[in-house]
Amino acid sequence: MSRFQLNRRSLIVAGAAMGAASSLGIAGLAVPARAQGLAPTQTMRGGANNYLPGAPVVERIGGGGFWMSGTVRRAGDGAPLEGIRIQIWAHTTEGRERDPHSHGATLTGADGTFRLEMPQIVPVFGQPHGHLAYDDDAFETVFLRPVMGNARDTSLSADFVLQPA
């Protein structure tokens, strides 16, 4: 019975072997890293506050100046999801969270990213925060309520990992 020892030398030898196998075109020995077993995003407390179903897909909410962005991936394998509708709303310089004109939606690109311009988010109840939702039928509904680090920030990012319904 042979014993494998994990040390610097064995790691160098293993790395060299993988490099050689890759350069020889031996399939399956060197594969790109994938997010295996990626857990779904859980709904955040307060995320659904002032949610209005069916906000339209828009180019921008109001006059803009602030960017909400993020990524959407599938639970398990982490694959980016294209064409996913993400709804966004917030208390801004142009309206309150409950105002229909403070709501809008955008779609993810082929790489699973989304980005939507909106008015500057301002603090409500002491915390500057945004609201984002995935609420269609293909995956489980998720509501997020990310808090900004500083009320003067001009962007906020939130990522979704969606579980098939």
Q: In words, what does this structure look like?
A:
The chain is of the alpha/beta class and 165 residues long. Helices cover 10% and strands 24% of the residues. The chain contains 1 helix and 8 strands. The strands form 2 sheets. Strands 1, 4, 7 and 8 form a 4-stranded mixed sheet that branches. It has a 4-stranded antiparallel sheet with strand order 3-2-5-6, with no helix packed on it. It starts with 7 loop residues before the first helix and ends with a strand.
Low-confidence stretches are 1-35
Tell me roughly what share of residues is in helical segments. 10-25%
Percent of residues in β-strands: 15-25%
Structural class: alpha/beta
Radius of gyration: 21 Å
| Average pLDDT taken over every residue | 85
Beta strands, count = 8
Would you spell out the secondary-structure blueprint of this structure?
Layout: H1 8-24, E1 66-74, E2 85-90, E3 103-107, E4 113-118, E5 130-134, E6 142-144, E7 155-157, E8 160-162
Parallel strand pairs: 1-7, 1-8
Antiparallel strand pairs: 1-4, 2-3, 2-5, 5-6
Keywords:
four-stranded antiparallel beta sheet, alpha/beta, globular, 8 strands, single chain, four-stranded mixed beta sheet, 165 residues
